[in-house]
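Interim report to the steering committee. The following record documents the input for Anti-sigma factor antagonist (107 residues).
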Amino acid sequence: MYIRGDHAELVVGGRLDVRSAADARTALHSAVDDGVGDLVLDLSELDSWDATGLGVIMGAHRRAGRCGRRLVLRCVPPQMQRLLVATRLHRILAIEGGIGVDSLPRV
């Protein structure tokens, strides 16, 4: 897993899972704390995430809200869109362009 960018936009790549959760949490919290306005997470290079990784995203979302910011997901891969819909988190998280629930393949 890697995260590159600044306090306004981060690109998250690789696997966001139990092994990378602590490093990801530190990077995301630092970006939230050091910036203002929306924090955009570009997920176009993310290969996969598990429940722990999703928990890191939700934690950053809550932290951003407490800091008067908004966490925005950009370029969410289709398999991760399905997980957001299945967990109904697509209704809570800000997703650039939204998720076309009807266009997602059924699993």
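DSSP finds three helices and five strands in the chain. The committee is asked to note this result when reviewing the revised timeline.
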